[in-house]
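Handout, page 2. Input:
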Amino acid sequence: MQHPDSDSPGSVPEVSVCVASYRGAAYVREQLESILAQLGPHDEVVVVDDASPDDSVDVIRGIDDSRIRLIEQPVNRGYVRTFEHALLESRGDVVLLADQDDVWAPGRVDAMRRALANADVVAGNLDLLGEARPISGPLGIREWRLPRVGRRAPIRNALGVLGGVMPYFGCAMGFRRSFAHRVTPFPNWLYESHDLWLALVGNLAGEMVHIDDVVTLRRLHDSNASPSQPRSIVHVLRSRLLVLRMIVAARGRRGLSNLRSPQRKRGS
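Output:
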């Protein structure tokens, strides 16, 4: 693995994939291989390891592919700050997020690049790895999918996030480089749910689109960062207060000027 010379021809990637690694030795190779299979020769995968106590770093180093850029944090900072670090290190015009323990569905990169031709942020859907069925949601929802309307219903989407019923997962999201200044730096009080922060900023800026595609196959195991079991009432209330704080902060960021690529075409 090498950090490409930024002065060499073709060294600036079109697509950057950002991965936060922590105790992922059992799964990270399969995930990275599913990502690399969809990237071009000059794209990159930025993996920031959050001081893993297992051999995650050795597994990643063992993948012989120069598109992987491995950054080792000397101390554990938590997954939110680790993802932020990866985002800040990325250089591509299209930035895609990935968890260490899932597998990318075929066609993800192409589907998200098409969607980002006319929007700044895109979110897709998840299926369970090995089961070919959607994940389940709260309130008895058996097939938890994003509604087809995206930028046409930003307030409804934001209220869905507040109510905990809108399935925005960072591992199924991406955005354009021109959007990065809106979401970074993350608020210093953001200790969880960076994916909801991205979704809220995107929605309140009127730049979020949803695609029907299943873009990530989610692996369920005991160490998932996003819990698959219901949380306590106290935790739910605390997380809803955090979302309210995100909404206020996201409204403040929506007025930032948005620099757009001259090649980009805007949809209606």
